[in-house]
Amino acid sequence: MPTSFVAPDSPARGIDRPGVATRCRVDAGYRLIDTVAAYGNEREVGEAVHSSELPRSEVFLETKVWISDYGYEETLHAFEKSARKLGVEEINVFDFELSAEEMAAIDSLDTDRRGGPEPDAITLEAFGREIPEA
Asked: How far apart are CA 26 and CA 42, in angstroms?
């Protein structure tokens, strides 16, 4: 039985009834629901998950902050807005969408494409600031 599902775009982007699609997937056994704030469907996704009456602990919710919401206050606001729209106090994974340039920088280390040595790890640089532990 499948366990993950990327929630469809919102009706504003041409996809009809993302909440119905999400609820059908939850009823079919999907437990990881992946969405993006920019899809404009977090409210419908949250309502679908809540209407399933599954315990919250059985559904893994993942959403993403959009590039335009990067920055300390902007990201905090985006997280709170996503949680409110999803109707939850906890988001299991809050991803950061990467720009094309950021993805190209990471892809440049793909040894299958370029050959040569590969790094043991890729880390996040905080530009002189300490990254707090979660």
From this structure: 15
